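Practice problem: predict the structure.
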Amino acid sequence: MNRTGLFIALGLALVIGLLFGIYPELDLKLAALFYDPATKSFPIKLDAVAEFARDAAMWIAWAFALPAIVAFVVKLARPHRPMLIPGRAAIFLLVTIILSAGILTNFTFKSYWGRPRPVMVTEFNGPWQFVPWWDPRGACGKNCSFFSGEGATAFWTYAPAALTPPAWRPLAYAAATLFGITTSVLRMAFGGHFFTDVAAAGLVSFLVIWLAYAFIYRWPATRMTDAQVDAGLARLASAWSRLTRRWRPLG
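Answer:
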């Protein structure tokens, strides 16, 4: 999570955004690689192995987040016990997955950016007109194409990769990149997303993780310690416990 990675991500965002903004038909050409005109469908959708791989990818990603979720819940239930994992790591993992795979994807863009999925556009036997990535005025009303939630979740594995020992970190980043690309290609093969949907997912996840890492670990003005996080969560849990006791009916 250094400046080189940030510059690469911003450069990719600029190139992909401009290229597919000027030539939006590239999205259709890439999606067509997975489409069968004879059956008028994306045939891999019927493949049980591919369906299992799609589900497994999400299980794997959330498995990396599970220790942070458990640590947070246990800390709230037992405020005076130490965190099960380092406090900064727990906050970093939870904040980044909630933002990248939840709020920014499903509760923001996919709910208000009306871009139809490939299976929904007329070029692939769907009912609606194709729109480029930058146009939110598509006919899709909810759970739309831009940008990919599963792609964002897969690329979120950059977050646990950032917490590996420095000697292992390049390999962890490479594995996270491969995992994100494989999951994204699978979503394209299902007709669920265009290339720009999954590219945006990866770039947004990376930028969220880069900023969160800098905020928690790097920038002196905001840098935290594990002890500070542990103490803050303990105070929060204690305050919540006192508040809920007041709400309980007298017996």
